[in-house]
């Protein structure tokens, strides 16, 4: 493990008010999004879609790093360039999702545990040889009647820590993603309380596993009310509670926090990130940025619809969405930019 390499990579992933694009949807998730828009659900269509994304002109003006999926890193662009090289050629750092998904936690109804530690060391070695420089592992925490249980939180935190240690052993930066889901009718305070417990446990387990904070990126949820909660809270409340929770739980030595979008609309995710940076940037020790998937890609996907003739318009939509979030990293996003970009780009 080379601490300098890890820290340099982690710093580069969140530098210059730029973020990450998550292109690591599993095949079932990607296929579902395709099906909703009438796009064929085949490896070739997934390849063409992700080629459209990564060849977007100027993508690196707002994106530092891209999280890829195992299928994608083994595919090639239409000009026979490997996806990893294409990402590097775009001056973007290539990464990989390495978890095998959330499965039922035995003995704990309605709770999940993420799998994928088996053979992870050898998989990381293979990915490193491909040129991959960081990895991602997602743990899923559900709020509901009597859950999450302490055992669910501890087990998932331990899994994240073991994964992170193996990544650092391979000189790959681990993105640590404990996601408290938006699903449910819980209020903002409940999400705060659960997320605080989860993050405390995650950093406790990272410490026990001898993971170096300077060589990780945290990818948490924002503090949000459940999707079925009558009181949806305003942007300022969400920003305040999210920053408060992070200040209580995340060591200052962590280089950056890259939020997941977690089912938020594109504009809401951007506005909430913007509020945090506009109000609290001078008070926080880490870069606050984005690692969005659907909230970045979906406007482009709706335009693309699997048709090559729509690629340029889709790329314009993606570029615009990326720039809005880059502005949010500086606290300079304005809602008017949504309409202005729509009129200018497509």
Question: What are its keywords?
Answer:
346 residues; alpha/beta; TIM Barrel; 8-stranded parallel β-barrel; two-stranded antiparallel sheet; 48% helix; disordered C terminus
The mean pLDDT is: 95
CATH superfamily: Aldolase class I
Name the overall outline: globular
Question: What strand order characterises the main sheet?
Answer: 1-2-3-6-7-8-9-10
Fold-level CATH name: TIM Barrel
Portion in strands? 5-15%
- CATH architecture, by name, is Alpha-Beta Barrel
Percentage of residues assigned to helices: 40-55%
Low-confidence parts, pLDDT < 50 over ≥5 residues? 342-346
Description:
The protein has 13 helices and ten strands. With 346 residues, it is an alpha/beta fold. The termini are far apart. Helix 8 links the parallel strand 7 (173-180) and strand 8. The protein has one domain (3-345): Aldolase class I (TIM Barrel), CATH 3.20.20.
What is the secondary structure topology, with strand pairs?
Blueprint: H1 3-13, E1 19-22, H2 27-36, H3 43-54, E2 63-68, H4 70-73, H5 83-89, E3 93-97, E4 102-104, E5 112-114, H6 120-130, E6 134-141, H7 150-169, E7 173-180, H8 188-208, E8 217-218, H9 235-249, E9 256-259, H10 266-280, E10 287-292, H11 294-304, H12 311-328, H13 336-345
Parallel strand pairs: 1-2, 1-10, 2-3, 3-6, 6-7, 7-8, 8-9, 9-10
Antiparallel strand pairs: 4-5
Helix pairs in contact: 7-8, 8-9, 9-10, 10-11, 10-12, 11-12, 12-13
């Amino acid at each position: 493990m080379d601490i300098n390499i890890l820290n340099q990579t982690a710093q580069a992933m969140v530098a210059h008010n730029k973020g990450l694009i998550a292109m690591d949807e599993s095949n079932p998730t990607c296929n579902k999004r395709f099906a909703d828009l009438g796009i064929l659900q085949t490896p070739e269509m997934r390849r063409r879609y992700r080629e459209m994304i990564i060849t977007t002109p100027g993508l690196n003006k707002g994106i530092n790093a891209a999280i890829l999926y195992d299928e994608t890193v083994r595919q090639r662009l239409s000009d026979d360039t490997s996806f990893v090289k294409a990402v590097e050629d775009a001056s973007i750092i290539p990464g990989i999702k390495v978890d095998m998904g959330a499965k039922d936690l035995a003995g704990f109804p309605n709770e999940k545990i993420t799998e994928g530690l088996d053979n992870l060391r050898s998989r990381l070695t293979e990915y490193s040889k491909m040129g991959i420089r960081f990895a991602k592992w997602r743990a899923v925490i559900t709020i509901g009647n009597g859950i999450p249980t302490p055992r669910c939180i501890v087990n998932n935190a331990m899994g994240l820590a073991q994964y992170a240690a193996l990544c650092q052993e391979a000189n790959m930066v681990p993105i640590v993603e404990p996601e408290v889901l938006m699903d449910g009718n819980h209020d903002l305070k409940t999400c705060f309380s659960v997320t605080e417990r989860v993050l405390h446990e995650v950093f406790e387990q990272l410490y026990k596993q001898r993971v170096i904070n300077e060589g990780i990126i945290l990818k948490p949820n924002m503090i949000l009310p459940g999707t079925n909660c009558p009181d949806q809270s305003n942007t300022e409340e969400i920003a305040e509670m999210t920053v408060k929770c992070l200040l209580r739980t995340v060591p200052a030595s962590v280089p950056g926090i890259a939020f997941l979008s977690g089912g938020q609309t594109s504009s809401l995710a951007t506005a909430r990130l913007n509020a945090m940076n506009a109000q609290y940037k001078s008070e926080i020790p880490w870069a606050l940025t984005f690692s969005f998937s659907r909230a970045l890609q979906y406007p482009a996907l709706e335009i693309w619809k699997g048709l090559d003739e729509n690629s340029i318009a889709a790329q314009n939509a993606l570029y615009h969405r990326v720039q809005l979030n880059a502005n949010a990293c500086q606290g300079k996003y304005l809602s008017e930019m949504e309409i202005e970009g729509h009129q200018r780009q497509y």
